[in-house]
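Thanks for the sequence, V.! I ran 4-hydroxy-tetrahydrodipicolinate reductase right away. Repeating your input here for the record:
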Amino acid sequence: MKSIKVAIAGPRGRMGREAVILVHQTEHFELVAVIDRKYDGKDLAELDGFSGIHAPIYTDIERCFQETKPDVLIDLTTPESGKYHTELALQYGVRPVVGTTGFTEDDIERLTKLAEEKGLGAIIAPNFAIGAILMMKFAQMAAKYFHDVEIIELHHDQKLDAPSGTAVKTAQLIADIRPPKKQGHPDEKETLQGARGAEYDGIRIHSVRLPGFVAHQEVIFGGNGQALAIRHDSFHRGSFMSGVKLSVETVMKLQTLVYGLEHIIE
Ligand SMILES: NC(=O)C1=CN([C@@H]2O[C@H](COP(=O)(O)OP(=O)(O)OC[C@H]3O[C@@H](n4cnc5c(N)ncnc54)[C@H](OP(=O)(O)O)[C@@H]3O)[C@@H](O)[C@H]2O)C=CC1
Ligand SMILES: O=C(O)C1=N[C@H](C(=O)O)C[C@H](O)C1
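Predicted structure:
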């Protein structure tokens, strides 16, 4: 099998480090470059924790694309950088696999159009863990029968975006099949602002940020005399890597942008 040339943005991050090791260890992937905010011109192997993993470091992503011509960009950075990198990747004919969260519906729409114009595959995956995809799918199934639902997502306290991309995606999947519904008492009032959480199409989302946590979510349905809770826990970031690998392989066969791994897992 011809190897897929991969560049990774955010290699020193919690996810980026795992992705570097995954790409390095996968026989049919080749790590051709990394995009970092520092260390321009150095070899990745010179940095702590990357001994023996050689790849040129670029701070300028356009120069990186011009000089190393990757097939795929894996982006694991921040919402602002992630959007900028994804757009540039498509402009340069590089297929983006985006784990970075914090993209709005408008962002997804704009990038979908751009991918279509360029005839390029792209994947934006709010969650790469198979268990999280199943949690979202099961929640969507349950919403057909239980129309009252709230989402609690729990993450480490270094997370920049709230609510999580997974929580937003879960709410979108539920809203796709649930009739519109205003939940709770029609006259309810918050005596402390934010007490009822964020709202997506009538679905309340509560974001917990605590040290010690990685990535967790519970979708709670309430019905007549019963409740159903669907929970997923990522205890470490290895949980996301099989989804990253599948996305890099799959994006090479796509001509459009796919938002959510539920569209590509069988
Ligand atoms: N889809 C999924 O399954 C998952 C998605 N995520 C998402 O992935 C993203 C990264 O998460 P995480 O690894 O925990 O975050 P970290 O903060 O640990 O890592 C982000 C890294 O991106 C770097 N960075 C920021 N801007 C740029 C830029 N312009 N160019 C190059 N590098 C840049 C940062 O560099 P510096 O240190 O210099 O600031 C940092 O090293 C988040 O959006 C998170 O929500 C996380 C887990 C799973
Ligand atoms: O920042 C994280 O850690 C995670 N971010 C993603 C999200 O926002 O849903 C995926 C996972 O929950 C971990």
